[in-house]
Amino acid sequence: MRYRLLGRTGLRVSEMFLGGMIFHESSPEVRRVFDEYAGAGGNVVDTALMYGDSESVVGDLLQGRRDRFVLATKYTPTRDRTDLNAAGNHRKNLVLSLEQCLRRLRTDYIDLYWVHVWDRHTPIEETMRALDDAVRAGKVLHVGMSDAPAWVVSRANTLAEWRGWTPFAGVQVPYSLLRRDVERELLPMAREHGMSVAAWGVLGHGVLSGVPTSRVPPESIGKRDRAVVGAVLEVAGELGVTASQVAIAWTMRRGVHPIIGAGDAGQLKENLGASGLALPEEAVRRLESAVEFEPGFPADFIGEVDRSPDIYGDDLLLLDGR
C-alpha cells in the first residue's frame, strides 16, 4: 500500500480507504476484514453517523490502536426524524452530531470530519465557521465535503482562505468507469484547490466485478453498462487479475482514493490486490472508450478554444503554459 498527503495538509493517508458502511455489527468476520486491511498497510477507515451501528463497531475495532488510524466520519442526515433541527449542516446539528459521533466511536477527536451532503437550506458560511470552531476546539483535525456541487466546495474554500478558517482538505464523490460525471467539474476543481478525492461506488455496486449479485441482477444491467463490463473482463483476463482489481486500479490511476468494502476478508484481500496494479496505456484506452463519454460544456468548448490562435494569437504554440 502506498500513501499520499491529504489535500494540502501533512496527514499521510493510504491510497485505499476502508468503507465502514457494511459494519452492521461486531463479529469475528468484521474483525478479520479490518485486520486484513490494516495488515496491507491501510490506515483510513471511513464511516458515518447514518450508517446504523457502524460507528460503534468501528469504535470497538480501533480500541488499543486508535492513533494509528485516520478516522473519518460524516454528519448531515437526521438524528431524529421528528425534529427538523436534527438534520442539516447548520451549527446546531453539527455540534450535536459531532458529540454523538465521538461517543459512539469512543474517541476524543475525529481525524477527518465530512459534511455528508450539501444542505441548500444552510449558508455555507455557517457550516465553514462551525467546522472551524470544531477544529479549534481539538475535536476535529481536518474537514471534507461529500456529495456537493463544485461551485459550493470552491466557494467554501475561498471563504475559508479569506477568513482564516479551516478549508476542506478533500471531497468525496461517486466515481467509476460506469459513472464519470465528476470529471466535468468536481475533479478539475479538486485539482485546482489541491484537494484529495475519495470515491464511493467504484465497482458500480458490484456490476464491475463481473459477478451478478442479488442487489444488481443481470437483467437490470443495460447495454451501455454491459459494454463497460465486457471491456473490464477482457482486460482482466489479459492481465491475469480480477475484474474488480482492474476497476479499482483504474480509479486510483486517476489520482482518486477508492473507498473499498467487502463482506468477508477474502473479498477484501482480492480488492486490495489492485494496489500496485499498473494498467497498460492501451488497456486504459480500451476501458475508457468502451462507451462514449463527453465532458460537455464548458469543458469541451474551453478545450477547443484553448488551442485556437483565433483566441490567443498566432504565437500560442510558443507558450509553455500550465
Automatic annotation (TrEMBL):
Q: List the InterPro entries.
A: AKR (IPR020471), AKR_Detox_Biosynth (IPR050523), NAD(P)_OxRdtase_dom_sf (IPR036812), NADP_OxRdtase_dom (IPR023210)
One Pfam family for this entry, by name? Aldo_ket_red
UniProt keyword terms in alphabetical order: Oxidoreductase
Identify the residues that the record assigns to the NADP-dependent oxidoreductase domain, covering every copy. Answer: 17-291
Q: Which Gene3D superfamilies match?
A: NADP-dependent oxidoreductase domain
Name assigned to this protein: Aldo/keto reductase
